[in-house]
Structures are given as C-alpha cells and as structure tokens.
Amino acid sequence: MPSYSAPVKDMRFALEALADYDSIAALPGLEEATWDVVDAVLEEAGKVASDLLAPLNASGDAEGARLVDGKVRVAAGWKEAYDEVSAGGWLGLSGDPEYGGQGLPSTLGAAVTEMWQAANLAFSLNGLLTQGAMDAIERNGSPQQKEFYLPRMMTGEWTGTMNLTEPQAGSDLAAIRTRAVPEGDHYRITGQKIFITYGDHEMTENIVHLVLARTPDAPEGVKGISLFVVPKFLANADGSLGERNDLRCVSLEEKLGIHASPTAVMSFGDNGGAVGYLVGEENRGLEYMFVMMNRARFDVGLQGLAMAERAYQQALAYARDRVQGKPLGGQPGAAIVGHPDVRRMLLMMKSQIEAMRGLAYVCAANMDRAARAADPGDRAAAQARIEFLTPIVKGWGTEVGVELTSVGVQVHGGMGFIEETGAAQFYRDSRITTIYEGTSGIQANDLVFRKVLRDGGRVARDVIGAARDFANELAPTGGEDFATLRAALTDGVEAAQAATDWLLERGAADPLGPAAAAYSYLRLMGTVLGGHQMARAALAAARKLQDGDGDADFLRAKIATARFYASNVMPEARMRLAVIRDGADDIVGFSEDRF
Amino acid sequence: MPSYSAPVKDMRFALEALADYDSIAALPGLEEATWDVVDAVLEEAGKVASDLLAPLNASGDAEGARLVDGKVRVAAGWKEAYDEVSAGGWLGLSGDPEYGGQGLPSTLGAAVTEMWQAANLAFSLNGLLTQGAMDAIERNGSPQQKEFYLPRMMTGEWTGTMNLTEPQAGSDLAAIRTRAVPEGDHYRITGQKIFITYGDHEMTENIVHLVLARTPDAPEGVKGISLFVVPKFLANADGSLGERNDLRCVSLEEKLGIHASPTAVMSFGDNGGAVGYLVGEENRGLEYMFVMMNRARFDVGLQGLAMAERAYQQALAYARDRVQGKPLGGQPGAAIVGHPDVRRMLLMMKSQIEAMRGLAYVCAANMDRAARAADPGDRAAAQARIEFLTPIVKGWGTEVGVELTSVGVQVHGGMGFIEETGAAQFYRDSRITTIYEGTSGIQANDLVFRKVLRDGGRVARDVIGAARDFANELAPTGGEDFATLRAALTDGVEAAQAATDWLLERGAADPLGPAAAAYSYLRLMGTVLGGHQMARAALAAARKLQDGDGDADFLRAKIATARFYASNVMPEARMRLAVIRDGADDIVGFSEDRF
User: Fold this and answer.
1) What are the C-alpha distances in Å from A398 to residues A193, A439, A566, B92?
2) Strand A158-163 relative to strand A206-213: parallel, antiparallel, unpaired?
3) CATH number corresponding to B439-595
C-alpha cells in the first residue's frame, strides 16, 4: 500500500529561502504567524495527511462514489475523515477570522493544500470547491450572505460547489443557458450543469451551490451571466434547515481517475425552479468568477506538484527496494536506484518538483502581499505578479505533473502497470489537472494575451528581469556549481526574453501567431522561472552551508538538484524558443482539411 | 463509441515512398506480392480491423478477462472474433508457406499489424505472442517440432505464449529460477512465471507455452538458461490431445489498461512437474530469446504508432465536431479544430505518427531484405540496420505514443477524462508499451552499448550519413518548403552526429556517462531519423505532385506536415544533445542518499 510522508523539510526550506516567509510574517495582521506556528502547522497537517487521508486514497479509488437511490454515497471512511478535518479547523486555515477562519498566511496555506492533495486528491477536492464557493461569497456577496454562509462553510458544517459548466458551455462559459427568473427576493433557477465536483453527498446536512445563470433580459454572451447561491436545503434565518430545494444529482460520471470524488450532473428546477439568491449584481457573474478563478487555478497548479511529489515518493521507495541486474559500477544485489537511467528518472521528478514548489510558494507569498502589504504600490505589484504567475503555476505545473506521474509508473517497470502498486492511480488521477479550471491551452492564451500583450510586456519584463539580475548576482559566488547554474539561467532568461519580444512584435498585427505559440511560451516560462527558483535555492543552501546552519547533506542535495535542473531541464527553454519563432506559422498556415 | 478506420492511403504512401516497396516485391520469393496483392490485403485487413475488432475494443475494456473456477473467461465476442481472424489466414500472413503461412512480406505485415493493434490492442496481443512463440520454434526448434507446432499455430488452431518473467526476474532474466529436470525424452518443469499474456484462455483447445528455465547442472546467470516448449495439453503424434499438462493459471492481474488481455500468473509443476521439450540446445535459451526479441520489440514499437493513430482519429473527430468559443480569425459556430492550440495538438499527433510509421516500415523492409536479398552483403547490411533501428522504433515509438495518447485526451477537454468517450482507454492501454518487451531504459542501453559502442559507431554513422546525404540532395529541389526541411534535417543530423561522437569518446573509458545519456540519445535518434523519413515523404510528394500522380490535397498535406515536424518537433534534437553533453555527469555524480 503506497504511503505518503509530507516533505516538511523541503516545504520549510521553500517557504524560508524562496517565498521569503520572514517578510510574510512581518505583514500587518500576520504577526502571530511566527515560525513556531508554521512548524506546528506543518507537522500537524503532515500527520493528518499521512495518517488519516493517505490511507484512504487507494480504497477510495477502488470503491469510488456511487449514486444509489438518488443519493450520492461516498467511499468508506470519507465521512469520518471529513469530520476530523473539519473539527481540526483545517478548512478555514487562511480564512478571515471574522467568519471563523484562522487568518494564517496563504503562503502557509499553499503548503498545507499541497499535503492534502498529495495524500488524497479525490478527498481534497471537496475542500477546494468549498474554498472557491467561499471566495465567491466573500468577495461579492452581501454582508448578510457572508455572515450567513461563511462561518458555516469555514467550519465545515456545510460544503460548497461551483456550477459553471453545461454540455455546450465548457471552456466557453459565454454559452451558458441556465435561466434565473426573478421572483420576489429570490430567483427561480432552471437548467442542467455538468462536471460538478462533489455536486451531491451526505457528509454534511447542506450544500451551498454557486450557480452561473442568465436572467430573462440579460444581454447575450459573457456580459449576461449572473451568479447565484442555491442551497441544497433552504435554510431559516437561524440556519436551521427548511425545505429541500428543487435541484438534484441526476448521475455521476465514470472517470479515468479521482473515482472517489463524485462528479455530478446536476439538474436545477425540474419542479418549477430552484430558489437562488443573487450574488452581487446581475450580469457580473463571469467577472466575479474570473477574479476568484486565480485562486482555484493556483490550487490546481499545486495539484501538479502534489501528484508528482506523491508519485516520486512511491517511485523512490520502489527503486530503493527493487533489485534487478547489477547497476553499472555498482555491487551485486544493489537496488535499481543505482542504475543511471533510473537515477535520471528520479532526478527528473525531484528537480522539477522542487522547481514547481518554489514557483508556487513564491506566487502564494504574493497573495499575502497583495492582501496585506501596507504600501498600495506593493499590493498592486504583488497582484500583478499573481496574475502573471497563476497561468504558469497552473499550466506548466500540471503539464509537468502529468508527465512526472508517467515517469513514476515507468520507474516501477511492469509493476507500475498493476493497479495494486498504486503508481497507476497517480497517473490516472493527475490526468484531469491539465483540463479542469481551464485547460493548458486556456492558461497559455491567458498568459500570452491577458498577461503579456495587454500591458505591453511590462510584468513579463519585470519577472524575467528579476531572474536575469539574480543570474548576474551569481557571478561572484564562484565555484563550478554556480558557474553552471549561472550559465544555464542566463541562457534560459535570454530565451524567455526573446520569446516575449517575439510575442510583442507579432501581437498586435497578427494574434494568430502568438495564439499558436502560446503553449510553447507557457512551457518556456515555467521552465525558466522554475530554474530561477532552483538557482535561488542553491544559493541559499550554499550560504547556509557556509554558516553551518542546517543539515549539510540536505543543503548539498539542494545544490546538486539545482545543477541537474540546469543541465537536464533548462535546455528545454531554447527548444521552446525555436518552436515559437520558427514553428508558429506552420501551425497557422496548416489548412484544416489537410488533417 | 469510438471508431477506427485503417489509414490505408497513408500506409500505402509510406510503403511506396519510404519503405521502397517496389524493391521489396522484387526480392526472391516475393514476386507474387504485387501492388494488387498489397491493395487487396490492406483493404481487407482494414475491414476486419474496423468492422470486427474495433467495435469490441471498448466493451472488452469494460468487461475485461476474468478467472472463474480456474478458467480464464475472455470478453464477449472475443472467441468469435478470434475464429474469424484465424479463418481469414491472418495469423500466418508473413509466415513460411511450408508451414501454412502466406509468405507475404514483413513490410506488408507491419501495416497489417498496425491495424490490428490500433483497432484493439488487447485482442491483438494474442497474435503477437503466438507469433513470438512461432518465431522461437521456427528459428531454434527441431524439424519435428516445427512440423508439429507451426502449422497448428499459423492457422490459429493453437495459440502460443512466452513465459519469461518471474517475480525476481523481470528486466534481469539472468535471475530466472524455474527448474527443468531431464526425464527420458523430455524435462519436468517447475516454477512460477508472471506477466504471461494470454497465459490461459478457452478460445483454442490447446496453448503452446514457451518457457525459460534452468537445468540442474546449468551454469549460473545468463549462460545457464534453456528454452522449452510446454503445451497446455500433451498431444499425440497425430495432434489429438492427450493428458492435461501440470501447469495452471493461478491468477490474473488487475491492470491500468489492456483489461481484455489476460495477464496471468502461471504455475508449472504443482503436481510433480510439467512436461516440457527442449528447444535447440541446453543453456542457449537466452540467446534464442534475444534473436527473437527484435521482432517482438519491433511489434511493440508499432503499438506506439497504432495507439497514437487511434487516439488521433478520435481526437480529430471530436475537434471537428465540438463547438466551443469562436476560433481566432474564424466564424462563430466553427468547431474547435480552428483554435490554434487545438491545431497544434493535432499536428503534434499527425506529424509524429507519420514519422513513426515511416521509420517503422523502413525497418520492416529491412527484415525482408535481411531474409531474402540475393547478395549476402545486402542481407548483412539489412540485418545491421534492423538491429540498430529496433530499439529506436520500440523505445522512441512507444514513448512518443504514450505522450500522444495524452495529447488525445487533452484535445477532448473534460470529455477526455470520461471513460465513455474512449480517449482515456488509449491513454491507459498505451501505458504498458514503454515497459513490456524491455523498458525504454533497456532499449536505450541496448542502442548505446550494443548498437553504437560495440561496432565503434559504424552503423550509426551509416544511418546518420544517409540522412545527411538526403538533406544535401534536397538543396537543388528549391522552394521555401524544402529550404526549411533541409535546414531542420541538417541541424538534426549534426546533433545526432555530435551525440554519437560524444558517446564514442566517452564510451570505453567511462560507460557511466553513456548509460546516463542513453535515454536522451534514444529520443534524439528517433526524432532525427523520424525527421529524415518526413523529409523523404515530402520530397516524394512533391515529385508526385509534379507528375500529377495522385491526390494533390493529400500530397500537399504530406509536405505541410513535414514542415510542421521540421519546425515544431525537430528542435528537440538540439535539446537532447545539450542534455547528453552537459547533463550526463550531473546524473552520474548525484549521490543516491541525496534523493
């Protein structure tokens, strides 16, 4: 049975050396989030992840969620685990204390979310969707809605869902048809939604559905969509439950992975219309969604990292145990971890995991800065970084995550194909991450058109410039390791800059070129910015080594892993640049009927 | 329900323009394999694939093979389909007419095998393993064994299996423990074998197991393994069945994919020892296996191509049908195939599929030359090419195949994750192809150590030289298309040559470097040699266009697809070279305890 042990030491290192956690804990309102608190939270969360959630991962996959007599039955142990996580206050970890949250930094929250997702992705989605629903209410709801729903969701008493997709409206939410007809202080909602994660279950007495729908006189397209709260049970002012609302789970999807997460087809209004309450103003639903989506996309980006980490732990344990052939230059009876190609695979995993973690935590640190920095300029700068980095954390993180779960299978040889081993589940589960909350293609377009072209490359230049400055700083550090890191990062930075220049040059005149190049640009930026974090990690490790601060083997491993990334991963940047420059026109020019 | 249509036009083009089928049909003994025969075979096989086998693919996956009361029950329709394929004479398509085969070229056989595998991989494996068992008997068996077994297997009356793997002996067959004790004219076999494809079933009255085992006085390691025929039922001289042999299927594996292909744990000799007959001489079993394995590895390489083709057909149909958002520069209501990033994904599939098909069919053509060319020098040269190309066709073809089935899922967006759509099955099924018949790491080591270093790079130089010569030939062809193709191929050839030189330089002194670089070298060679075939295809298409010979749209698509490959895929070659040169030492130098 595959186990999971939260990589607390790596997480703490990334928080300290990369996310600059000291500066986060110094932000107004986070003064109590000291390192003592961080250590206690990581340790405690690590225990919940490894002892409570991870053991349910394989059994949940085998059993799955089922629709029985109109009710969704979750897997054995799910309800008990949910109650324990709720009771632990984990759902409101970085939530607003006004509504019962613990007010801890999002930076720390990112590490904890990584743990839940690595331990049991299917289980963790319930919390992720509830978080999304809470965000929507917190940002756009009325004071009454906030007071009513948020404390109940923060404590886990009620869960939340996001009802966006319809059969004809997936990536294109403008095509939504679900209708909302005003009736007194509420609306009547009618329509069908698909792909609704935890759309129904019996773990809590109520479920708060956030639903996108159109009012009768709404304009066509994206500007005519409104957002509604549609609870499963209508509730009285004191929170006690009233009538069952007119909505139901029609069916559950048979999926490739995350079997224990019920993916529901939801029908609203079969009997006259479900009661829904408008959130914010009419026709601004999609705008609200997009603001909120940054966080949801970031969390899915963490899933790429989390699945890769889980797959890595499993593959490494197998490689250290399995004996098969004498490794070249090794002893008879030595395990396969000694084979150079197995080592290559494990290093592809380890190094890219650390790069993803570094970039994700840096992005999370910007969330705290954007929310709390004293200076408005700092807040705005942090917000701009978040918006630039989010599609990269999501798109690059999940694409690489899927690739690494495949490498995890490969390390196992034939045993990787046997479900009992567990490696195959990570391969199946992770496959959704490049799709939901916006496909990689959508992330790439978001990055290129909204985040690079819209501001004339200003933020892109800043981010790339920071990496360039850091590479230049590495010069006086000396030593062969840092010469290698510097050369690779400089090369990557040049490729990133050249690709950005190409986008800007082509952009206005010819958006088809940038659209065709978008995916390659997304991958290039992830590779280079991940490499920037790897070089930062190496330098921090070297300084700690010099100061005799910390576990020397651990710190030397950071430097060696950064070197591997520099020589084995960073060359991807030049390839992506070549494909962008020389390849985009061959995509644009390929006539559809030639497929 | 996903359907499959054999890409007969593409296959015929690859046979003619790339595999130089005219020269194959001119070989001694193949005079009757004219183009009329080829066309008839492709058409008829295409019908069997699309009408008989493809419709059983999804149902077979859902039902799977089961062990019920000690008997393996295959999926519904399996037995009937098997009988029809047998009756059609398809199992002996390129088999020796002396034993009931049709004696058609392996080159044509490759195209037909691609069809079976694309239509229904799980079904096709039965024939593949039977072919392997036939090869072992044909090459190494006694005249009596050949006469007795081959006609019965060629007609499909009996099937065959390969019993190699044991729990402690997977990639390392030297660790085999199954014992064979001589007793009169036969041996008594005792031991357990795992991962035995179609190890048991009731579709035929008998199964011919080929089993690797050790005799009591055998030397240790690889030189002490012998090969035995161990039939499920002992047979009388007239072929009528006698006693049940002492072997049984203990259990079937629960796998990630190919659910309808029973993967058995086989126990031999629970009641005193199964009767087995020695094939060839004692202690030469592994040597026989390795000779035979070239063919089996080649066939698995075709699976990478076949799965990718199947996934492509499915993704293309979906992309042409699904409407979601207005494509940039397109019309409202246009399907997603118009989105540049969807087009990029489809082109990644189409172009690499054509490259894989080209290289695989060229390799198959060498099989016919090696077997039949009049001149012994020609035969030897062809054999050397086969040995060089086989690990590339297998390793590169399946790695790319797995990646492309993932792209196929991605094209579907959320629907790709729903099992009903079918895209997920190809993703699951294909995942075994980089593992069985030697993992990609093993293919890479085979290529580097046995195929490049052992002969001092002689064959590698020839193969790369042919690509270089071709690139130079492209010069006078003129036009922008061919200037692009020439530049990309030249660049790839230089990278391949530089990587080969690096291997040769490091090889003798320091095999750890080449071992660490082997996977990257495998991918580099696949990319470049596949690109060579794409450029050849483009030139052949241009000539046909000039001559007004054939469908102009089809021929222009060949040129446009080759261009896409040149600009979007070929840049991988330089990346791999950089990783080989600069990255190998960082793998070798990474200490195991730092993971």
Assistant:
1) 25, 10, 21, 46
2) parallel
3) 1.20.120
For residue B294, the model assigns a pLDDT of 85
To the nearest 10 degrees (0 to 180), the angle between helices B552-564 and B512-547 is 150
Active-site annotation holds for B437: yes
Do A344 and B516 lie within an 8 Å CB cutoff?
A: yes
Contact A553 B595 (CB under 8 A): no
CA A566 and chain centroid, separation: 24
Could you read off the pLDDT of A373-388 as tens digits, one per residue?
Answer: 999 999 999 999 999 9
ipTM of the complex: 0.98
**Which chain B residue shows the shortest CA-CA distance from A581?**
B567
**Whether the model pTM is above 0.95:** yes
Contact between A368 and A105 (Cβ < 8 Å): yes
Region A346-363 average pLDDT: 98
User: How far apart are the C-alpha atoms of B362 and B382, rounded to whole Å?
Assistant: 10
Q: Reply yes or no on whether the pLDDT at B562 is more than 90.
A: yes
In terms of phi and psi (left: phi > 0; alpha: psi -120 to 50; beta: otherwise), the region of A166 is beta
Identify all chain A residues contacting B572, using CB atoms and an 8 Å cutoff: 575
- Using a pLDDT cut of 70, give the percent of chain B over it: 99
Distance of CA B447 to the CA centre of its chain: 16
Whether B431 contacts A409, CB under 8 Å:
yes
Q: Give the model's pLDDT for residue A477.
A: 65
pLDDT tens digits, A520-555? 999 999 999 999 999 999 999 999 999 999 999 999
CATH of A439-590, one of 3.30.2320, 1.20.120, 1.25.40, 1.10.3470: 1.20.120
What one-letter code names the amino acid at B581?
A: R
Look at A341 and B316 and tell me if their CB atoms are within 8 Å.
Answer: no
Cβ-Cβ contacts under 8 Å, A432 against chain B: 417
Model confidence at B149: pLDDT above 80: yes
Q: Which residues of A touch B175 (CB under 8 A)?
A: 324
pLDDT score for A34: 98
Q: How far apart are CA A443 and CA A456, in angstroms?
A: 18
Contact at 8 Å (CB) between B154 and B200?
no
Cβ-defined contact of B590 to A560 (cutoff 8 Å): yes
Q: Which residues pair with B244 in a beta bridge?
A: B233
Percentages helix, strand, coil for chain A (3-state, rounded to 5) are 65, 15, 25
Window 403-422 of A, Cβ < 8 Å to B = 406, 409-410, 413-414, 416-420
Query: B427, A432: Cβ pair inside 8 Å?
Result: no
Reported as a single tens digit per residue, the pLDDT across A483-503 is: 999 999 999 999 999 999 999
Return the sign of the alpha-carbon dihedral for residues B414, B415, B416, B420: positive
What is the pLDDT of chain A when averaged over all its residues? 96
Inform me whether the C-beta atom of residue A490 falls under 8 Å from chain B C-beta atoms. Answer: no
Closest-CA residue of chain A to B439? A413
Question: How far is Cα A484 from Cα A567, in angstroms, rounded to an integer?
Answer: 8
Q: How confident is the model at residue A38 (pLDDT cuts 50, 70, 90)?
A: very high
Taking residues B21-27, report their average pLDDT.
98
Chain B residues with beta carbon closer than 8 angstroms to that of A561 = 590, 594
In the DSSP assignment, the letter for residue A446 is: I
Tokens matching residue B105: 């070229």
Q: Which helix (H) or strand (E) segment is A205 a member of? A: none
At residue B1, the pLDDT reads 59
